[in-house]
Amino acid sequence: MNKNSNLSREVIGYFQDNVQLLIELTVEHVQLVGLAVIVAIIIGVPLGIYLTTNESLAGTVLNLAGVIMTIPSIALFGIMVPIFSVINQGIGFLPAFVALILYSQLPIIRNTYTAIKNVDPQIRDAAEGIGMKTSQRLFRVEIPNTLPVIMAGVRTAVVLNIGIGVIAAFIGAGGLGELITQGISRGNQEMIIAGSIAISILGISADIILRFIQTLLTPKGFT
Amino acid sequence: MITYENVSKVYNGEVKAVDDVSFHVEAGETVVLLGPSGCGKTTLLRMVNGLESITNGDIQIDGKSTSALNKIDLRRNIGYVIQSNGLFPNMNIEQNVTVVPDLLGWDRKKKGDRYNYLMDLVGLNPDQFRKRYPHELSGGQQQRIGVVRALAADPPVMLMDEPFGALDPIIRERVQDEFLHIQQEVHKTILFVSHDIDEAIKMGDKIALMKDGKLMQYDPPADMLSQPKNDFVSQFVGQDRTLKRLNIHTLADLVQVMDLNESDATIEETKELLVTSSLRDTLSLILDQQVRQIIVVDNKGNNLGAIDFSIVKDYLSTRGGTESLSFSS
Ligand SMILES: Nc1ncnc2c1ncn2[C@@H]1O[C@H](COP(=O)(O)OP(=O)(O)O)[C@@H](O)[C@H]1O
Ligand SMILES: [Mg+2]
Q: What is the ipTM of this complex?
């Protein structure tokens, strides 16, 4: 009991003494995850939409994205190191960035694909029947009506990546994982706990903010 | 206006949904495609605007084969209404209504004016509905908006696939009546799918009755009722054909071929009926115990004579009816 309250006092102390460092690491973490998810959206949303027009490819791609998700994160980061060593980028931002993009693909592609597939066929028929071109149907009807579901996939990817982003520190990509890797190597408990708390807070805040954005993107016509 | 020329449709190389159908729809006419579920009505309709390909034969609009036209342009010039209304949930009512004008690049003012005009036409307040969304409207209102949207770019041709089929009977009657009024104003050439003989009689200038992809009979409702071409037709139009004919024929039809009685000004319990009334309304007034004399008047109020049960009965039997009108009580 006494030991516990001591520890929490020490953790709070750690936070107070290292505000500057914590902010820097948080910014690094957010940059890494943010950029990875943005690129993942740029790849995953169009791919998910395209797959709705190509059933046979859809199965393959979704399975592949599923397989990537099942690779333990530390192993995926590990695989990236030798691959990027070829271009002398084995350690640092790039391998971590690519690993996170790969991890984000499944929720983003799957949600986009499923959402577009599930657009009411009558509504699609009406869009076609009144003379919309495929692109007009997509941008005026299908995407607006599925934006909340696509956004839910993005939210999942972000929250997932904030957690997995911790591993990035092991391959020198920085971020809040630093506190944990260094805490372990130095045997510094406060550091490990402070790192874990900071990551949790980041994850929860990101979820709340993205939920809010999701509501903003939901067309007014939805209940 | 619309010509089907030996049109056939085979799905997946096996299902023959439409089998060698030919007929012609005059400009300004409403033709109801009628028949039991699965007989090929929807397929027949959707081949006009290229939503389904034509396996054999040709469909022409204004003498031009639809296969030669650009599908997108073709569709933008044809109003399309479906049973589930197909309104876009992400667009408000004004956006839904003006979606085709928008695709056609109309300017803001023109779109706004058109929206106001059409909403007034169907009796919905333009401002009250402008910013609302489809799900906030009742089924009947949604369906009316669906019709308004199809009329938005003022297309000469309208395709309507069971447009009022999802509405409950009372609302359906009202929306049908309204649509008939609108049609008197806009004079579109309409293909209207229905599986309901009563709706077909009410809405159609002609009925195309289908069975298993084949056209059984193509005639005005009155002719289909009085001269069904085969057993299927007479079964489909039903046993109560005489009652249905009462709905179609008006006093105006009757006075052209029958002489009315002299009216008697001394009878107190007299009612007047407009010459545009249906024979059904006439008959129900004849059966009214409170009324002893019914005088038919034209639009200007001129007395055309008095009508009674035997005149209606004689009229129906001289008009090719095989059944006679009889009462058991
Ligand atoms: N896309 C399709 N693929 C295969 N068969 C179809 C398709 N659409 C309709 N059919 C078949 O064609 C026939 C006619 O269908 P349809 O035109 O929808 O009839 P209706 O509108 O009169 O109910 C039915 O046997 C139906 O099962
Ligand atoms: Mg149908």
A: 0.80
